[in-house]
Amino acid sequence: MPVVTAVIASYLVGSIPFGYIIGKMKGVDIRQHGSGNIGATNVWRTVGPGWGLLALVLDALKGAAGVGMGKLAGIDGVELLAGIAALLGHAFPVFLGFRGGKIIAAGLGVMTALAPLVALIAVIIFAVVVLFTRYVSLGSICGALSVPMLLALFQYSSLYLLFGVVVCLFAVLKHIPNIRRLLAGTESRINFRKP
Length: 195
Fold this sequence. Notes:
This protein has one domain (3-184). 71% of the residues lie in helices and 0% in strands. The termini are far apart. It is mainly alpha-helical and 195 residues long.
């Protein structure tokens, strides 16, 4: 697969707004409820936990698919470029006027395809933080911050490390409103028992 085709295809796959689609299936415009975000957390809160988990899995799969298309190009490094394209598609989807999610679930798929052990440890960090604080945003930020450190710990190449830093910064920047609410004590906590 040509490099340009792989990157464009990855962006378009990343742009598929699964959270929005799930909301519409349930008769809800997810952008008009909760945080207004199309990601799995808002689907969980607005439509229900099962649907939120489905959105998470589908968003993760499209991130992994982006990396897979990059690998089809057969050139080292294109999988990273395609992974970024998938994340950009999720964050700025062409199908929703470039207003999308915060790249955590899609980022999980990207990292699982690139560095499975790093992704697993990041998920554990995320889960522990969310379990003890019930702040999904804080868990997401902590998980994202762990990625470049874990890539360095496991001695991935400098290109992978740069990729990890870029994705980490991207994720943190997408969470700036959440960071402000966390500091102000007004951030919403996840309810594990009911939507």
